[in-house]
TrEMBL record:
Pfam families: eIF-5_eIF-2B, W2
Protein name: Probable eukaryotic translation initiation factor 5-2
InterPro entries the record matches: ARM-type_fold, IF2/IF5, Transl_init_fac_IF2/IF5_dom, Transl_init_fac_IF2/IF5_N, Transl_init_fac_IF2/IF5_Zn-bd, W2_domain
GO CC annotation terms, alphabetical: cytosol
PANTHER family xref list: EUKARYOTIC TRANSLATION INITIATION FACTOR, EUKARYOTIC TRANSLATION INITIATION FACTOR 5-2-RELATED
Record-annotated W2 domain positions: 269-429
Record SMART domains: eIF2B_5 (SM00653), eIF5C (SM00515)
SUPFAM superfamilies for the chain: ARM repeat, Translation initiation factor 2 beta, aIF2beta, N-terminal domain, Zinc-binding domain of translation initiation factor 2 beta
GO molecular function, one term: GTP binding
Source organism of this protein record: Raphanus sativus
Length: 432
């Protein structure tokens, strides 16, 4: 069977690894009952990782004709006589809309239906989430006929809970092993005692070799035995050496300048000013990067390439995205959620994002943003950017921390209570 590259933009790339069969069609019937059969539609759909019913339905919607896919026989029929080239061009449009990532163009995507009943494409290559046009007729069909869940059966959230329980059991086992080691008697011989014996025997052997060497080299080497060479690095020793090498006046001037530099380093104000200047410059760099209008898929690489601590980088990104938008925090968060998706692909990034949102809302002048923080978290939760376990952990840490009187926790509380009630309901359903 002849193969071709997936996506019209990759047609001439000889090394492109994503391929699909070339379309084969057959006209059946006569008169008003004439139909076009896409003979290898099932093979094409498998290559695209999409149900064959989706491509069949798409052809019917775009051609304004009735279409039908038979699950038992795998037959795809579209009413009317349609050329192979016409159907192939429609297939390319389907790939561009419902297969290829809108960020990087990779066809290795998965259809995700969000809690708000939107059809998205999640890219396995860059992590970008593409939003399909909900005005398209096929999106309504996809909502009514969602793709089958991958084999494995369990819900992602249930699997995460089970993984956390396994980790806790492992930690408990480690603690028990440590206690047993502490209680073990010291007198008994073990591997360590054997090792020490071996070590001592090696030490007994080595001097014999040294004695042989000393006989050959002479008596001069024996004079250096037992001498430890080291430099006294204390302040008094440094002053003494400096005074010996420099004149008294020069040495005193150098020492005064060193003392002033040490005082500046130890000064808390200078340290705070230095930290704030670094943070401001990092925020400014983030703003300049966002102004360039580069593809959002490249943001992940830019963020991970920074040498600053990951939390500071996330703080700077949130400040750059929402600077001056405290009064329209919810609106801006919904508009710029794609940037947050790209920045939360690594482990621990969701917790860092929550910390950054909390610190942004807690800043002076952002009092309006605090009022909308629960709604913002709800939007990010619905879009699968934030998971409930991280939100709950972040909230509990905030209440137990030093800044527990912050208005952030008061405004987040209703959303947290809603999450807890939804989680308890899902657990009750699983037990039933």
């Amino acid at each position: 069977m002849a193969l071709q590259n997936i996506g019209a933009s990759n047609r001439n790339d000889a090394f492109y690894r994503y391929k699909m069969p070339k379309m084969v069609t057959k006209t059946e019937g006569k008169g008003n009952g004439i139909k076009t059969n896409i003979v290898n539609n099932v093979e094409i759909a498998k290559a695209l990782a999409r149900p064959a019913s989706y491509t069949t339905k798409y052809f019917g919607c775009e051609l304004g004709a009735q279409s039908k896919f038979d699950e038992k026989t795998g037959t795809s029929l579209v009413n009317g006589a349609h050329s192979t080239s016409k159907l192939a061009s429609l297939l390319e449009a389907f790939i561009k809309r419902y297969v290829q990532c809108y960020g990087c163009g990779n066809p290795e995507t998965e259809i995700v239906i969000t809690k708000s009943q939107c059809v998205n494409l999640k890219c396995a290559a860059c992590g970008f989430i593409s939003e399909c046009d909900m005005r398209d007729k096929l999106t309504t069909f996809i909502l009514k006929n969602p793709p089958e869940a991958k084999k494995g059966g369990k819900d992602k959230k249930a699997m995460r809970r089970a993984e956390k329980e396994r980790l806790k059991e492992g930690e408990a086992a480690d603690e028990a092993a440590k206690k047993i080691k502490k209680k073990a008697p010291i007198g008994k011989e073990g591997p360590s005692s054997k090792a020490s014996k071996n070590h001592s025997s090696d030490e007994e052997i080595s001097p014999k070799h040294d004695e042989v060497g000393n006989d050959d080299d002479g008596e001069d080497d024996d004079e250096d035995d037992g001498i430890q060479w080291q430099t006294d690095t204390s302040r008094e020793a440094a002053e003494k050496r400096m005074k010996e090498q420099l004149s008294a006046a020069t040495a005193e001037m150098v020492m005064i300048s060193l003392q002033e530099e040490e005082k500046k380093k130890k000064s808390p104000k200078s340290k705070e000013n230095g930290d704030s200047d670094l943070k401001k410059s990092l925020v400014q760099e983030m703003k300049e990067y966002l102004k360039k209008g580069l593809p959002i898929s490249q943001l992940k690489a830019f963020v991970s390439s920074r040498s600053e601590p990951p939390q500071e980088v996330m703080d700077a990104l949130v400040d750059a995205l929402f600077d001056g938008a405290a009064k329209e925090f919810l609106k801006e968060a919904a508009k710029k959620k794609k940037y947050l998706v790209a920045a939360t692909q690594e482990e621990g990034s969701q917790m860092r994002l929550l910390n950054s949102i909390g610190s942004f809302c807690g800043k002076d002048g952002n009092g309006e943003a605090v009022k909308e923080v629960a709604q913002v978290l709800k939007v990010l939760y619905d879009e699968d950017i934030l998971e409930e376990e991280f939100v709950l952990e972040w909230y509990q840490k905030g209440l137990a921390g030093e800044d527990k009187s912050s208005p952030v926790w008061k405004n987040v509380k209703p959303f947290v209570e809603w999450l807890q009630s939804a989680e308890s309901e899902s657990e009750g359903e699983e037990e039933a």
